[in-house]
Hints:
By secondary structure, the chain is an alpha/beta fold. It folds into 2 domains: about 1-150, Alpha/beta knot; about 185-245, Trp Operon Repressor, Chain A (Orthogonal Bundle), CATH 1.10.1270.20. Helix content is about 35%, strand content about 15%. Helix 1 (about 20-25) links the parallel strand 1 (about 1-5) and strand 2. Helix 2 (about 65-75) runs parallel beside helix 4 and helix 6 packs across helix 8 (about 230-240). The longest helix is centred in the last third of the chain and has 19 residues, at about 200-215. Ligand 4FV binds near residues 86, 111 and 112.
Amino acid sequence: MRIDILTLFPEMFNSVFSESIIGRALKNNIFTVNCINIRDFSEDKHKRVDDYPYGGGPGMVLKPEPVFKAIQNVRKENSRIIFLTPKGKVYNQKIAKELSKEEHLVLLCGHYEGIDNRIIENYVTDEISIGDYVLTGGEISAMVLIDSVVRLLPGALGKKESYMEESHYNGLLEYPQYTRPREFNGHKVPDVLLSGNHKEIEKWRIYQSLKYTYLRRPDLLEKKELTKEEEEILSKIKLNFSNEL
Ligand code: 4FV
């Protein structure tokens, strides 16, 4: 996978690509990345990239010309040109999985009040929002997308790491995790996890996953096809926790 990032602040990405899992995946050529400064495509003598909004109003707007040239500079036949914006479809693990199958992602990071809409209407393939709040720029949103997509690429997660059982992977919230010591400040690890009885451990984990999802994200249960066994466990949970919702 190749990722091209169109931004006014390429240096903001330095740490993302030098550390931990994403840094290692880059070193192992599991993906390639290129940060492009939109200002380099401004033919304005002062390298301006923003201007006043037509119709008046607060703030500035990113001009179409430098963004168009930056996009044309990297765009390929099968490129997904993604504009990070609060007006986009709200990002989730399903979209992350979908994008992880693409060959070329172009991430367009906005700034100011936004970008000239003719770029969005004519040259952008996807508008994605990482959540219903407003940031100062699209860079952090692009980092969220890169981290959540690259870790799904084959070979990105080492042996010890896996995304097979994590929250949202199977549409449910993950069961709680524990590690040594067995007792910490008087707080014990659930006995079942020390039992070595993998069948009982699996049942406990399904129960916990369904319980947390029922109590914290019942909306996820509406979208999730449950097995017969999971349905039975969930009805017990509803009995036990009906008063907690
Ligand atoms: C955002 C979001 C976001 C809006 C104005 C950048 C800012 C500024 N991007 N999900 N929420 N972008 O707040 O993706 O240009």
